[in-house]
Design goal:
Elements lengths: L1 H15 L4 H26 L6 H29 L2 H25 L32
Helix pairs in contact: 1-2, 1-4, 3-4
């Protein structure tokens, strides 16, 4: 949450104090984004089973890319039509509106998966060495 808070402060500051935006608040936004992204990857990685961890992280990255690919042109149009400060304030408002959704998603991920383990609630055990997975005996 510290990363998201720092990112939000940078966006809000750039909107409220546009003269300081490029010198103070844009670097704060960059730092907040980097911190938030690392923490998102850690949380997702801790709560993903080994077999799907890379896929899960890839899906999170793709979704983030799709969101920003849609947001950048919209914010650019708003900045051209009104002002860059208004575009920053609009992006800050979106961040505030989405914060509860982010909190619910993080809570809904469940507890961390033990290292080398399967996802919680599954009865899978690793296959014995030299024995294909499809020949594993059925669980009761």
């Amino acid at each position: 949450m510290v990363g998201l808070g720092t990112l939000w402060v940078g966006v809000l500051g750039a909107g409220l104090l546009p003269a300081l935006g490029p010198w103070v608040f844009v670097p704060v936004m960059g730092f907040g984004f980097a911190l938030a992204w690392v923490l998102v990857e850690v949380v997702v990685s801790d709560r993903s089973a080994d077999a799907v961890r890379a896929t899960t992280l890839s899906v999170v990255g793709v979704l983030a890319g799709v969101v920003i690919a849609g947001a950048r042109p919209a914010l650019g149009l708003l900045a051209d039509a009104r002002s860059p400060a208004l575009a920053f304030l609009a992006w800050a408002a979106v961040g505030v509106a989405l914060a509860p959704l982010v909190a619910l998603c993080v809570r809904g991920l469940g507890p961390p998966v033990p290292a080398g383990g399967a996802a919680p609630g599954t009865a899978e055990a690793p296959a014995p060495p030299n024995r294909p997975v499809h020949e594993r005996p059925a669980s009761p």
